[in-house]
Amino acid sequence: MFMKKAALTTGIAAAFMLASTGGASAFTACQVTDVGGIDDSGFNETAWKGVQDSMKAYGIEGRYLESQSETDYEPNLNALLDAKCDIIISVGFLMADATATSAGANPDAKYSIVDMAYNPTIPNVLGQVYATNEAAFMAGYISAAMSQTGIVGTFGGINIPPVTAFMDGFYYGIAYHNSQKGTNVQLLGWNPESKEGLFTGNFESLDDGRAFAQNLYDEGADIVMPVAGPVGLGSAALATELGPDALKIVGVDADMEVKDTNNPGVYLTSVLKRMDSTVMQVIKQAMDGTFEGGMIVGTLGNDGVGIAPYHTFDSAVPAALKAEVDAIRAGIIAGSINVGG
Asked: In this structure, are 194 and 330 located in the same domain?
């Protein structure tokens, strides 16, 4: 079966291109990206992979619209409505208001949103949320064990729950290492109690990623976890210049050692948010008639979140530490380890 994707711009031209795009498929899954773009090496791209995987697995058509700013959210959603998409997937917490408004005005349309769940539930919106704090807890433990300076850093793009969930887990994973090993590894950039920390205020500027990582490095951090989409690529570029012995990076959303081909060998691991898997689940439900409002939660237990392989650092990570991390994963799944402190 012939399958295609349409990468479109906003406005009247977008609506025209969508309406005029033909295809053999009887089902179309559509996505609106957040401002990071479809090729952000992070959550937009990973969500789109779920659409692409569905195109291959189910023989459907997939299309997307890229948002250049928050003002594009509503026009993009409206354009996809006009195109008669069978499921509209909006990507990102920042799209919550626009998605809720569109869904409320169009109760017969099916929507899903990544990184958001509504309370009360909106009947025609299925939220996709992730226990990234579980996987980030593991990454924090690893980072505390691997740090040579005893100082680890993090920063976010914007102070919103899908970002700070990573930072919370990272903090408590470091704290757990300290409690288990008698160490005093410090985390710079985030305090989960006060909910205050370092934020670039955007998800686009690689220059900010470099500058924030430089500041943390100057304060002694030798491992940094940027939670800011493409901004983190700037941090990785700095680590490449300094060398991984001086600065290592913990990636987020996707396996950044694989995604970021410009900076190989600087990622200790990555905290994975498997949006591709949940997007596929949503599309399948929309296709088979089981779709209903509510939420899907990705956890360690259902492989909705996880950590990436150590890649270049595999031989540097002691076997005992790997075993401890495996045990921590099992403990989190079993409920015997509390990732909230």
From this structure: yes
CA 129 to chain centre: 10
Q: Which two tokens stand for residue 184?
A: 């005093």
d(CA 70, CA 325): 39
The DSSP 8-state label assigned to residue 107 in this structure reads: T
Q: In the predicted model, is pLDDT for residue 35 greater than 70?
A: yes
In SS3 terms, 297-309 reads as EECCCCCCEEECC
Task: Tell me, yes or no, whether 80 and 110 share the same domain.
Answer: yes
Domain membership flag for residue 339: no
Do 218 and 327 share a structural domain? Answer: yes
Let me know if residue 341 belongs to a domain.
no
Strands 267-273, 248-253: pairing is parallel
State how beta strands 267-273 and 61-65 pair.
Answer: unpaired
Q: Are 330 and 323 in contact (CB under 8 A)?
A: no
**CA separation, residue 247 to residues 149, 187, 303 (Å):** 10, 15, 29
What are the φ and ψ backbone dihedral angles of 323, each rounded to 5 degrees? -65, -40
CATH number, domain containing residue 173: 3.40.50.2300
Distance CA 41, CA 62 (A): 19
What confidence tier does 11 reach under pLDDT thresholds 50, 70, 90? very low
Task: Note whether 265 and 292 are same-domain residues.
Answer: no
Residues 6+ apart with CB under 8 A from 32: 64, 65, 67, 73, 76, 77, 80, 88, 89, 90, 91, 95
Q: Residue 122: give the domain boundaries.
A: 5-131+275-298
Do 266 and 172 belong to one domain? yes
Domain assignment present for residue 196? The answer is yes
Which two tokens mark 276? 């591709």
Instruction: Provide the domain count of the chain.
Output: 2
Closest CA to 121 of 291, 302, 275: 291
Q: Tell me the β-bridge partners of 63.
A: 6, 30
Kindly report, residue by residue over 129-164, the tens digit of the pLDDT. Answer: 999 999 999 999 999 999 999 999 999 999 999 999
Give the separation between CA 33 and CA 191, rounded to whole angstroms. Answer: 30
